[in-house]
Amino acid sequence: MFVSVKSAEETAELIRLARENGVPYMIMGNGSNMLVGDGGIRGLVIQIGKGMAYAQAEGCEVRAGAGILMSRLASVIAKAGLSGFEPLSGIPGTLGGALFMNAGAYGGEIGDTVKDVTYVDDDGELHTIPRDECVFGYRKSVFSQGGRYMLSARLELKPGNEADIRAEMAEYNRRRSEKQPLSQPSAGSTFKRPEGYFAGKLIQDAGLMGFSIGGAAVSTKHAGFVVNTGGASAEDVMLLIEHIQNTVEKQFGVRLEPEVRLVGER
Asked: Which of 109, 169, 176, 266 is most open to solvent, judged by the fewest CB atoms within 10 Å of its CB?
């Protein structure tokens, strides 16, 4: 069963009902960096969706719902003349997903902008915690450990000039479009950056650029992306991810860790 929720209270109530009735559940946002197994997901899927896609600026703070797309949030921030979000403006997906994995780009991370986050736990209770309790790290946070589901956040930014902010956002987006295979379906960057290396370069040096299994292929534009060239199943993507991991580890002794979130049944 799939439900798109409209408020923090509705989210909390659904979690309580699922727990009381022994129904497994999963919370998701836009699913931009998620790969769902071909066997699907059993139980209740709660989407933090459009009903929680708000953002409002007040002074140097922006309060935003976890369901807002990062691109829309960037536009609200720019219109308010606030700086500090520019490198993050082209990240796909929602604010909730970005908080979950502490998404980042071009030297910036969402955790750098956070003042506090409101979440719901597995008991359906609401909590608000400051940034230092979010334990933001490279592509992880306290939320990625499970049991805490982001509902909203307050971001702290700096005053700036709207025209300059928009110009900088446009430049970051141009660079992203130039280097990444945005014209093909994918779940975003496939692997986390291993310490001391770049995943894309390791994959390219392993001779895997363009390598495919079924409809899934290593992008010929950026080897760090697995793309759907047409009709790829989740199993195609998973088998290709495993092949990349094994090949890179065999050649370079580095085990790549997926950045894509693998959920559901194969």
From this structure: 266
